[in-house]
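Take the subject:
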Amino acid sequence: MAADLDSFEDLGLAPELAEALAAEGIEQPTSLQAEALPVIRRANNLVLAASPGSGVTVAWGAALLQRIESEADGTKALVLTPSHGRAEQLAESLGRLAATTGHGVGALGSHWVMPERATMLFGTPTDVLTVAKAGGIDLQGVEAIVLDQAARIDTFEGMEAAEAILEYLPKEAQRVVAVQPMTSGVATFIERHVKRAVTLPQFDASAEDGPKRGTVRFRIVAEPREEAVLEMASHLLADDARHVLVFCRNEDRAADVGDLLTLHGFVAGAPGDPDVPVWLGVDPLAARAEIADFADVKVVSCDAPTDADELDRRHSVSDGGIVVILAREVPHLRATARAAGYTVVPFPPAEPRGASAIAELQAQLRHALQSEDTAPYMLALEPLFEEHDPAEVAAAAVALLRKKLPAASTTVDHSTSSGAAAPPWAKLFFGIGERDGLTTGDLLGAITGEAKVPGGSVGRIDIKESHTLVEVHDDVAQQVIKALNGTTIRGRSVRADYDRPKRGTGGARRSAPGS
């Protein structure tokens, strides 16, 4: 791994590019950037086993902007992207850097004036190939080609168009492939067309093969992330955390988080201050040095740790910490946690009590979340997450799916809605919680499967750090307790009982109605 560097100037990056990055809040290179920038500037072929969240875009983007002459005529750097939205996003993002170096930037398939004249051109493989075949762009002068998020390109378009584009490029053109996770199609492409490539970062299997160091949970959100951090801090403090330590990528993000927390009445301050419930940190080692006692301290990362070292420095002080990430950062977080020896589990929002008519749908979705590889689809939906709330996108997807499915076999008993009182609820205690990796689907599946209880008889499932509270219809409560007490969920033997009051040593074992 490259040595820690204080600035991009230490890597030899031009001052104007370093200043432009600093204006974007990027002042210190990530470990991936420290390793990749020199390789790309030397025009070597490179495979970046990385995805958004690691700093991969700046790694190749800044290096190419320095390596390629700004006065060059026509396309000199070609970037293949998995979607029009991604091409637009990258063109705008790197366009702000290119404005300081004099390079032209453009994207096919969107609103850019004469993109074919841009020094750095972005587009999907299909768009680029179509325009190249029609003679709309001249690729004979291309000095470097980049495949951005190559796994997405392979999943939704295949690699055929990307391979065909290489026929229009000089054979000596530099080739950079950013891919995570690796797919068979991308692996074949690299073997055939990216000869003598350097692969970064180097994979260390020792942590993956060794004992797990802890568990990290993640919540997928859309920008801005500050609202989610507020929710996480509130949840953890209500669940008996004494302090919540929030790590942010830079001081500007930390200030934004602090302002929102203060607006909502949560006092935030420097790590180690005993008088404030929320601590804000940027440098993990500096923050940890100020904290004398980590008992009852929970950690929240406002962004994906850039590498395994940063994840461990942030989250090793407290098991079950939470990382707030974008959908496109999930593959990076999983790979980073694997390299650091951590288990990652989703931390979905709490579910309200649902009507029995949608219980089956919820159970099906929970099963899919646990058993299906959803990462490629999250990446495909990412542009929609930027336009709409992820919950709205999910609801629209379900609506389309249900239109294509035959009518549900589940029928709803309306007899209780014609004046009869709804069945009373009982609150049950289960000795398993978030730290065990429990999900609502695990417990709902156990209740409906082991106890043979219909989903409509299960209400709110409130997963706490070390235990879970579940509301069930009173007439099936004993049935659930008998069926689940002593069973194994997530490798842990579960104790099931009525929820006991927090105070006192005895008293009624059943919670009060509506509690």
Q: What stands out?
A: The chain has four domains: 9-200, 207-346, 367-408, 422-515.
